[in-house]
């Protein structure tokens, strides 16, 4: 996919903190800092991968960008329009441009609703098509994602996992969006089916000029699909780079540890597995200074008290680390 240098979505110091309540009156006792100060630009036509351990805030970032979670702080600028404080009514024309492919294709479908009706819902809300035109559009969508016209009348339980994810993809592209958040769309699928769905996502991106935010824990998939990769830890950014630079020269100690876990089938090229000490700290009580210092193999004393600056170490390659 050819990436345009024009910014489609600008995320500025975005934070999403969830209140933790307790006691008889359910007062707010603390906050879970799921996303804690993300600033980045997403370019038209690119696939930006977001990786990190479970609980690092990847999915929450995607949901917040789409408006499915309210902002705690920060700005969201879509196509030059600041939509941070828009009401649901004001967001409606922008929601047509932003869609999501969910991780679990079965949970995202109504088991009592025919697939054809499920795919028509967005068309009813966002278009003025007649019932006949909507049906024709749905049949076109089914064909576009590799399904058959007779599938229109079937229910979710009659499909395999891969087919249900194709339906989820068809629903996401039904109203011609420009931006799609893919929330681990292949993690629940068999490896052979994963390859088919990834190819479908690529083909649709080429055909419709789509921009993807691809959330995943599968670093192998990210390497083959994404243009740039953002590495998150405890809701914060630790490294951002073009995909080839990140995989060939991971700089942050956390990124090195993540990539060391990828199997390397090439004979004679072994990579020593980096095993991090300790457990992931709680996002409701993150460490001071560098968020990674409690598990970092090269941490120094000042890492526990001073937060590292976000800086560019090479063209397009950014990092937050005192020691690198």
Enumerate how many helices there are, as a single number. 9
Radius of gyration: 21 Å
Sheet-strand content, in percent, reads 25-35%
The CATH class of the domain at 7-84 and 236-320 is Alpha Beta
| Neighbour order of strands in the largest sheet | 6-7-8-3-9-10-12-11
Q: Return the average pLDDT rounded to an integer.
A: 90
In the CATH hierarchy, what is the superfamily of the domain at 7-84 and 236-320? P-loop containing nucleotide triphosphate hydrolases
Label the CATH architecture of the domain at 7-84 and 236-320.
3-Layer(aba) Sandwich
Unreliable segments of 5+ consecutive residues: none
Biggest sheet record: 8 strands, mixed
> What structural class should be given to the helix and strand makeup?
alpha/beta
* CATH fold description of the domain at 7-84 and 236-320: Rossmann fold
State the shape. Answer: globular
Note the run of SSEs as H and E.
EEEHEEHEHHHEHEHEEHHEE
Number of strands: 12
Span between termini? 32 Å
Helix share of residues? 25-40%
Describe, in plain words, how this protein is organized in 3D.
The chain has 324 residues and is α/β, with parallel strands linked by helices. It has a domain at 7-84 and 236-320: Rossmann fold (3-Layer(aba) Sandwich), CATH 3.40.50. It is 29% helix and 25% strand. It contains 9 helices and 12 strands. An 8-stranded mixed sheet has the order 6-7-8-3-9-10-12-11, sandwiched between helices. Helix 6 links the parallel strand 7 and strand 8. Helix 3 crosses helix 4 (131-144), helix 4 (131-144) crosses helix 5 (161-173) and helix 5 (161-173) runs parallel beside helix 6. The model has no long low-confidence stretch (mean pLDDT 90).
């Amino acid at each position: 996919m050819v990436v345009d240098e024009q910014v489609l979505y600008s995320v500025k110091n975005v934070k999403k903190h969830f209140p933790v309540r307790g006691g008889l009156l359910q007062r707010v006792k603390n906050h879970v800092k799921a996303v804690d100060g993300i600033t980045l630009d997403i370019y038209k036509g690119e696939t930006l991968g977001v990786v990190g351990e479970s609980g690092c805030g990847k999915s929450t970032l995607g949901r917040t960008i789409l408006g499915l979670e309210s902002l705690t702080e920060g700005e969201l600028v879509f196509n030059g329009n600041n939509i941070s404080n828009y009401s649901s009514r004001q967001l409606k024309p922008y929601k047509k441009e932003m869609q999501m492919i969910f991780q679990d294709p079965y949970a995202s479908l109504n088991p009592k609703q025919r697939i054809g009706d499920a795919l028509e819902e967005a068309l009813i809300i966002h278009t003025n098509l007649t019932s006949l035109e909507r049906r024709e559009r749905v049949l076109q969508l089914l064909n576009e994602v590799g399904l058959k016209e007779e599938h229109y009348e079937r229910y979710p339980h009659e499909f395999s996992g891969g087919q249900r994810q194709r339906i989820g993809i068809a629903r996401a592209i039904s109203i011609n969006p420009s931006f799609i958040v893919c929330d681990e769309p292949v993690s629940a699928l068999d490896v052979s089916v994963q390859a088919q769905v990834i190819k479908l996502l690529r083909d649709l991106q080429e055909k419709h000029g789509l921009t993807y935010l691809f959330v995943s824990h599968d670093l192998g998939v990210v390497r083959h699909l994404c243009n740039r990769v953002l590495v998150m830890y405890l809701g914060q950014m630790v490294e951002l780079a073009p995909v080839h630079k990140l995989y060939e020269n991971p700089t942050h100690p956390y990124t090195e540890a993540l990539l060391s876990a990828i199997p390397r089938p090439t004979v004679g090229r072994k990579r020593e597995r980096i095993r991090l000490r300790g457990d992931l700290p709680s996002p409701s009580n993150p460490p001071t200074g560098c968020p990674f210092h409690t598990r970092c193999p090269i941490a120094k004393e000042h890492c526990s008290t001073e937060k590292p600056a976000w800086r560019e170490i090479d063209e397009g390659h950014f990092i937050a680390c005192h020691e690198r």
